[in-house]
Each structure stands twice: as C-alpha cells, then as structure tokens.
Amino acid sequence: MSGASGTPYAAAVLRALLGAGEAVDLVVSRASRLTLLDETGISFRDAHWQEDLREWLARGADGKPGTFDVDVSGVRYWSAGDLAAGPSSGSYPAKGMLIVPASTACVAGVALGLSKDLLQRAASVTLKERRTLVVAVRETPLNGRTLRHLVALDDAGAQVVPTSPAFYAGATHIQDLVDFVAGRVLDAAGVEHGLYRRWTGELGGGSAG
To answer: Is the peptide bond before 162 cis (omega within 30 degrees of 0)?
Structure first.
C-alpha cells in the first residue's frame, strides 16, 4: 500500500487474496498509514499490526465495522523501512506484487528504479525478476510526467490498472464499485475471485466471475 487515497480498494484486494488461499506479504508505506488513519480512523501500528489489520479488513467500504469476517493468519507483515526484509531480495519466493492503491509519488519512484523504502525496493525486484507487477494508480487528473512514468512501467512489464469502476455490473452499493476495481486488479494478477459480474456480451446478462 502506498499513500494514495483508496484504502477500501486495498482492503477488498486483501480479503479476496486471503479468500483465495493466497499467502500475502504486506507492506504499508509511511504515507499510507496517514491515509488509513484519515479514511478509517485506524492507526496502523507495527507492534499491533494483526489487531489493526483485522479491524480494518472487517469494515466495508462505508466504514461500518463487522461487515466482513477475515482470518489474517495468511498475512506476513513487513515494515516499510526494513530494507533487509524478505521481499527486498529476488531469492525470496513470490508470485508477484500488487500496489493498491498506488500514488503518483510511488509510481514515479518505481518507474525511476528508486528504492527509498521496502515498497519501492520490492517493486524493483518484482520487475527485475520478471514477475507480475500490478500498479493500481489512484489519481486524477494525470499530468504528462505521471503519464510518462506509467508508460515506463508498462514498457518494463508492469500492468497499470487505473482505479476506475464500471457500472455495467449492476452496482447498487459503494462496495460493489470498490469490488469491481479490486476484481480487475486480481484479474491482472491471475487470481480467481467472484467480486463482480462479468460482461457476457448480452445486455442485462452476465455471470459471476
């Protein structure tokens, strides 16, 4: 997670990954802690990360507590300042990496190959090892410099997924719109899910994905 607005997207992706039986290495940037506090009121603490993570993931996109029941035992947490952490090395086993949400500062850092924190370092490792990197950019409008950074990431093999919800899937609640974006992120990563109704080519049609 980087510091962009959009913590409900990250929560939906994490719940779906855990629901699919995927082991998760979680990195929460320093800036994203501030965003999480601002958007949810939850202070994410290294010493109590499991408790804080469980409380956060239990909330829906509307902030209502107890919406979801999530087992976080499949998560391994790494401090963003720990550049000696497992994900900082290409020899650490990983299928890929999802940056959700991705701020323009994070996009720039990854595109330029910087390693100012574990998030950027892990992304650089993911690219050099030719693993899947999905960047869910959350900003509007986008200026030319950011667009060039996104093109550079695409050229490097990353998949850029703007956090742009669609409305053909029959959304009736804000969680539906969040889940659509989360589902597209997971599609890009090749993770099965049932977060949104897929387009079938028929108006009014569709089936669970």
So the answer is: no
* Helix-strand-coil split of the chain, %, nearest 5: 40, 15, 45
pTM of the model: 0.94
The DSSP symbol for 121 reads H
- Tell me the C-alpha distance between 74 and 112, whole Å: 32
CA angle 121, 21, 16 (to 5 degrees): 75
Domain-by-domain residue ranges, the chain? Answer: 7-197
CATH of the domain spanning 7-197: 3.40.50.1950
Query: Are the C-beta atoms of 137 and 153 separated by less than 8 Å?
Result: no
pLDDT digits (tens, 9 = 90+) for 35-58: 999 999 999 999 999 999 999 999
**Count of CA atoms in the C-beta half-sphere (13 A) of 53:** 24
Cα-Cα end-to-end distance for the chain: 25
